[in-house]
Amino acid sequence: MDEISVGRLADIPDGDYRIFAVEQLEVGIFRTGSKVLAYENVCPHAGGPVCQGKIFNKVEEIITSDKKSAGLRFGKARHIVCPWHGYEYDLATGCHPGDPSLRLTPVKVAVRNGQIYVSMPE
Ligand code: FES
């Protein structure tokens, strides 16, 4: 597996992402503090540029003990919304919340000495 340097962690603001062209792939690299995650920029629904979507905290419905809705709130999980048709994916897992079999393709990523490296499958 080839490891390729794509840039510096300091160039991605905390909570944000950048898209890199790595060989024949576009890869979205998402930063949370000193941690990074990477996914192929291809939506499993219909191939849209999912990593270029907006990031929101998951919207949850508050259900009371008598099974009534008490409104909506933002949860802790961060979701990315594909700009083509609005499918959402949990950034931590890459899974669609309603169908976990629908998931983003992860890319192996590491940070060493402030530099981001991705490993491309051979
Ligand atoms: S291509 Fe991403 S939601 Fe359809």
Secondary structure layout plus pairing:
Blueprint: E1 2-8, E2 17-22, E3 25-32, E4 35-40, E5 54-63, E6 69-81, E7 88-90, E8 108-112, E9 115-120
Antiparallel strand pairs: 1-9, 2-3, 3-4, 5-6, 6-7, 8-9
The structure holds FE2/S2 (inorganic) cluster.
Explain how this protein is built.
With 122 residues, the protein is an all-beta fold. It has a single domain (2-120), classed as Rieske [2Fe-2S] iron-sulphur domain (Rieske Iron-sulfur Protein, 3-layer Sandwich). The protein is 0% helix and 52% strand. It has no helices and nine strands. It has strands at 2-8, 17-22, 25-32, 35-40, 54-63, 69-81, 88-90, 108-112, 115-120. The strands form three sheets. A three-stranded antiparallel sheet has the order 1-9-8, with no helix packed on it. The chain has a three-stranded antiparallel sheet with strand order 2-3-4, with no helix packed on it. A three-stranded antiparallel sheet has the order 5-6-7, with no helix packed on it. The N and C termini lie close together (6 Å). The mean pLDDT is 94. FE2/S2 (inorganic) cluster is lined by residues 43, 45-48, 50, 82, 84-87. The site of FE2/S2 (inorganic) cluster has 11 residues, from loops.
